[in-house]
Amino acid sequence: MMMFDHSLILLATPRQIGVLDWRPGHMHWLGEFAADTAGLAAFRQIVVKHARLPVLLVVDTVDEDYRSEVLPHVQGHPRVELLTRKLKQVFRNARFTGAWRQARETMGRRDDRYLLAALPDADWLTPWLGELQREQVPLAGITPLAMACQHLLSKLRVQEPHTLLACRLNNSLRLSYYHNGLLRFSRLIGGDTPTQLPGSAADEIAKTQLYLTGQRILPREARLHVLLLDPGGQLDSAQAPLNADPAFSARLVDMSSVARALRIPDDFLAATPEVAPLAAIAGEAVQLNLAPPELLQRHTEFRWRRGLNFAAGVVAAIGLALTGSFWLHAQDLRDQAQQLQGEVQRGDARHAAIVRNFPALATRPDQLGLTLDLAAQLTRAPFDANTLFMPLGYALSAHPEIVVKALTLQDTTAGTANITLDAQLADFDGNYRAAMSRIDSFVTRLGATPGVAAVERVNSPVDTAPTATLTGKTAGETKPEETRFTLSVQVRT
Amino acid sequence: MTRPPIESLKTSILLLLVAGSLAAAGIFWSYKLNTEARTALQHQQAALDAAHTRQRQGQTEARLIAQHIDAYHALIARGFIGEENRLAWIEAAQLANQDARLYGLTYTLSPRETAPATLASGLPLKQTRMKVNMPLLVETDLQRFFDALHARAPGIFRVSQCGLTRITDAPPQPVNRPELDAECELLWFTVAADGKEEK
Fold first, then answer.
1. Contact B158 A413 (CB under 8 A)
2. Which residues of A touch B72 (CB under 8 A)?
3. Tens digits of per-residue pLDDT, A266-294?
4. Average pLDDT over residues A214-218
5. Looking at the whole model, is its pTM more than 0.80?
6. Neighbour count for residue B166 (Cβ, 10 Å)
7. ipTM
């Protein structure tokens, strides 16, 4: 949000108001306007021109009051009520009051330590605030100049625990005491007092030290580190008398160090030294805000609006980034797809060129080989009757009493062939035992013949199996047909 | 921070809503675009894989064709591929019978049928049964007939089975008179063409 911190910083005194147009890295002094009709009109023009910018009003006045309080530690709404009551109790009916919770005690109840501040007589602010309200300017807050100086000390990296900043601006001397870098007290000695005298400034500082010690704001034994900041150089001579006192340790802060710490040009700071505290507090959170809530309403709206606009910007940026990312990725994918499409077309063209040269076939090309293999398989080892007859011939030549009646050859196409042999004995005298013996002899020889894998007797003249029904007659004429038998022979092809 | 009235923030809230809506719409649109592009890419990748496969297959087929086309043409010429040629088979059987100097034959051709799948190897193999009945003088005439038929046959056939029966119980006589009756079953094989016959 720092980049949106363009704002106006006003330095208001009872006599005049100065306007600084500030944004990170840039600032422009818009001028000082006297607290009269002409100054107010000129100020109005500036406000109208910058009505949309938030405004921080830094007040530099004699009429300011500071009080350190230790209050019970509460949070939320009870704290608001507690501080409201306390501010009313301490500052009665002052309009511009504020409380700053600086730290929490480390011992006891661990109470909160507050700095309460008020502008008891700030009627001179009313015209300026009226102009701001008329133009509906978002007022971020009203804070004393001592708070701006606190940020200046922080940027100057002042580390001492007890620091008194003596700052001479607008012909006035402001003395502000900081404990561990946090504002505890401040007072302004007006320009009509004889602070021009070096000895007088040292006296005022010594008096302030006594006051702080008397009020127990500054420990009695503490050594006060005094920083003398004066663009005009009138405080330079106060350094020696202060350092002569062991209670003080004084040093001068030159404007070039301030310019360096604030990162602003030397000549710009030399021309408008009052810019220094304003530039220091610019962009920082308002810790001690003396503005009543009704004056901050516009700024609250401004912050909400700015937050919502920022959120809208972030959402839009995220949406744009994601949309762009997805879109770019999609374009990349599309390009890849187009490249692939080109490759597909080229591949199809190559395939078409290959297929174009194919002869017209009655079958698929991948079935050509299968067809050839099948043809080879079907023409392999054709039926050879002579080969099948060969073992039969050998066996029959050794048994001339066997007469073949019928033969059936069957090709099994599995390396073997079946032969069913139907035969009978050439003569038969009724002696079945002898006939069976001759048939058995033939079967044995046939089985032993090379090329014969197996011989099985299918039918016999006499079936002697215990499960068969056997019929016959023992008297009468005998015929060779009674010796018919059938063999199943497996021959290797 | 105390919340200011909604009325004063109307424009900013509207701006936020518009920004959110536009961002959501943009993200949705571009995401959809991205998804579609990814799907298209996947489709193209699949198409490319298919094209590569087709190309490889085409090259393989070209190689197969170059390797087998001559033998395939020979099978076509032989009558193994295409329609069955019954006239040629009948003529071949008659001529084989004459070549073997046999005594004539009778034949029966059954309708063409699909060959057993175990034999067909996935091809449209058809078979036609041919029963041949012929008298023989001696058993060796049978083989002579088959040898002659193999020489004459325009297609591919296998002898399924043959039965030889002696016509008479009388002992063999030294005269030229058939004494055996042969009944054989032949299977003529053809591969049916898927499409048109080759030019």
1. yes
2. 361, 368, 371-372
3. 999 988 998 999 999 998 999 999 999 99
4. 91
5. no
6. 16
7. 0.77
